[in-house]
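Entry type: protein chain
Record version: 2
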Amino acid sequence: MPDRAAADSLARSLVESGLAACVQVLGPVLSTYRWQGHVEQAGEWLCLIKTSAGRYDALLRAIERIHPYEVPEIVRFDIAGGAEKYVEWLRRSLTASAE
């Protein structure tokens, strides 16, 4: 996200809507990337979003709708394992938001 306020707003929207159990906002980070044939640099705020595989498609659509960038960075990492209590909390959080 381009600034902290936008990142915080995205995080709150995703958690309140039940699409994410947790969003961590990290930054600022300096991103160096190629855009439209030029190397660019920008300060950005990274959002780590925790959700379930079943909510991923809806989460993706929500981010694309909310995000101000033409091409937001959205990368999916499937959880192969984790602390049992944390993974259970994640499941419960997403289940509770669906009720």
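Comment: Residues 84-98 form the longest helix (15 residues).
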